[in-house]
Specification:
Order of helices and strands: EHHEEHHEHEHEEEHHEH
Oligomer: single chain
Helix content: 25-40%
Number of strands: 9
Number of helices: 9
Number of domains: 1
Structural class: alpha+beta
Radius of gyration: 17 Å
CATH topology: Aminopeptidase
CATH architecture: 3-Layer(aba) Sandwich
Largest sheet: 9 strands, mixed
Distance between the termini: 23 Å
Low-confidence stretches: 4-8, 233-249
Mean pLDDT: 90
Strand content: 15-25%
């Protein structure tokens, strides 16, 4: 089944907010989405994500200066580590995060965290468009920073939505689906970027055009690829040419 083109929205722009100009609005968007979906309070989110704030980079969809969709990303090498792998040590999983990552074959030098992801409802803009723009931005971050994989703890409904556009994930070894932070069913997962996007191109061609190539994101201002690069990235232009999956271009 094809992916329909989302209805256009007014004055939207996709931004990797590395200078943090939109940070307060991104945090407000994150809080609104998680309160509506899981009942989390801002204080609860601060307790959960506070240790990762210094390492967090927000990918946002903004209508002027109002963030209406946001992804909190954690690049590798942060002082607090990747939240998913840290969380595995605790209830309900009690799994060694480093060993799970090794069993999955992840290269932690190039593995990122998708810590939170969500779009506001009731903004007057199609939530499908906002989600597609965020997915496109996530893939652009993958390309611009030579991301080999990402990890996340995903609510199963969100996991199915990502899978429906070809962004499939696997449970981290030793983990199961369980209640987590207000979600009735969440799973610690990983996605290896290159083979996932190669499979998307052949199995989900409409989704590949929309969320990978960005064809159909009408009304969203998407910056050039280099603007999705995190300044602290250690990758050179030559590295990017060598490591960017052919399925992405």
């Amino acid at each position: 089944m094809g992916v329909p083109s989302p209805a256009p929205g007014p004055g939207l722009r996709l931004v990797l907010d590395v200078d943090r100009a939109l940070r307060s609005s991104a945090l407000a968007c994150e809080a609104a989405v998680f309160h509506a979906a899981y009942g989390n309070t801002r204080a609860e989110l601060d307790a959960e994500y506070g240790p990762y704030d210094d390492d967090s980079v927000f990918l946002v969809v903004a209508a002027q200066d109002d963030v209406v969709g946001a992804v909190r990303l954690l690049p590798p090498g942060g002082a607090a580590g990747l939240k998913t792998l840290v969380e595995l040590e605790r209830e309900p999983w009690r799994v060694d995060g480093a060993r799970a990552a090794a069993a999955a074959g992840l290269d932690l030098a190039t593995t990122w965290e998708v810590a939170t992801l969500g779009v506001r409802r009731g903004t007057g803009t199609s939530t499908g468009l906002l989600a597609a723009a965020l997915y496109h931005g996530l893939i652009a971050v993958c390309r611009a920073n030579a991301m080999s994989a990402y990890v996340a703890v995903l609510d199963e409904r969100v996991r199915r939505m990502l899978g429906a556009v070809g962004l499939a994930s696997r449970a981290l070894p030793g983990t199961t689906t369980a209640p987590y932070l207000g979600s009735a069913a969440s799973t610690p997962v990983y996605t290896v970027c290159a083979p996932t996007l190669d499979a998307q191109r052949t199995r989900f061609p409409d989704a590949h055009r929309l969320v990978t190539l960005g064809i159909g994101l009408d009304g969203v201002d998407v910056p050039p690829l280099e603007e999705f690069r995190v300044p602290s990235s250690r990758w050179t232009t030559q590295d990017l040419d060598l490591l960017t999956p052919a399925a992405l271009v």
